[in-house]
Automatic annotation (TrEMBL):
Lineage of producing organism: Bacteria, Bacillati, Actinomycetota, Coriobacteriia, Eggerthellales
PANTHER family: COLANIC BIOSYNTHESIS UDP-GLUCOSE LIPID CARRIER TRANSFERASE, SLL5057 PROTEIN
Pfam families: Bac_transf
Keywords recorded for this protein, A-Z: Transferase
Record carries keyword Transferase: yes
Residues in Bacterial sugar transferase domain copies: 27-205
Family statement drawn from the similarity comment of this UniProt entry: Belongs to the bacterial sugar transferase family.
Native species: Gordonibacter massiliensis (ex Traore et al. 2017)
GO molecular function: phosphotransferase activity, for other substituted phosphate groups
Protein known as: Sugar transferase
Length: 223
């Protein structure tokens, strides 16, 4: 599977290790510093997104949803709301016949450029998430979590971005995502995190991996 998902890329297979304490402390310190700096630097963008959501659709600016966190604990994940308030809650995107009918006027743009995920910078400051890690999954979508667990991918904080997101995003299935998440845990280091982060920037700018369904986010959640 590794050769098919990213030919020529040298990575450890899943299950090889759990990150050590020193790396975990350094990663947490960098998460806090980078999230705080990003919130300040991107405050005009955050304000513009909030105004766009509020001005184009009645309802709250933020969408809050319970998701799986580290060690299969649960936390409230925050996003800019991209669907109308009448949308059925916690329904996987694949269950919608016509997602465009539920999308707010600003929602499609926010998703295409991953701007809807920016409130998760606050989740990082709270300690629920990291900048890089397996993407958080809604509680109802237990299959992906079950696939991740034997690969040690539930042992770390979920991330704003992850190895699976820069290796296919919506173009890989749950088994492939879980495998990639396991590879991430097996290869965790500050250098590998930086590699994932900078590939994320390139992926977002090029919009690679959104062709299967441009209105579905990377964890299959409709909001």
């Amino acid at each position: 599977m590794a050769a098919r998902l990213h030919p020529g890329v040298e990575v450890r297979p899943p299950l090889s290790r759990i990150p050590n304490r020193g790396y975990a402390h350094a990663k947490r310190a960098l998460d806090v510093a980078s999230a705080a700096l990003a919130l300040v630097a991107l405050s005009p963008v955050l304000l513009a997104c909030a105004v766009a959501v509020k001005a184009t659709s009645p309802g709250p600016v933020l969408f809050r949803q319970e998701r799986w966190g580290r060690g299969r604990t649960r936390f409230e994940c925050w996003k800019f709301r991209t669907m109308v308030v009448e949308t059925p809650p916690d329904m996987p995107a694949a269950s919608f016949g016509d997602k465009a009918a539920f999308m707010t006027p600003a929602g499609d743009f926010l998703r295409r450029w991953s701007l809807d995920e920016l409130p998760q910078l606050a989740n990082i400051l709270k300690g629920d998430m990291s900048v890089v890690g397996p993407r958080p999954v809604i509680v109802r979508e237990g299959r992906l979590i079950d696939l991740r667990e034997p690969l040690n991918a539930t042992a770390v904080r979920p991330g704003l971005t992850g190895w699976a997101q820069v290796n296919g995003r919506n173009l890989v299935d749950d088994a492939e995502k879980a495998f990639l998440d396991g590879e991430y845990v097996a290869n965790m280091s500050l250098a590998f995190d930086a590699r994932v982060f900078f590939r994320t920037v390139a992926t977002v700018l090029s919009r690679r991996g959104v062709d299967r369904d441009a209105r579905r986010d990377d964890d299959g959640v409709p909001f």
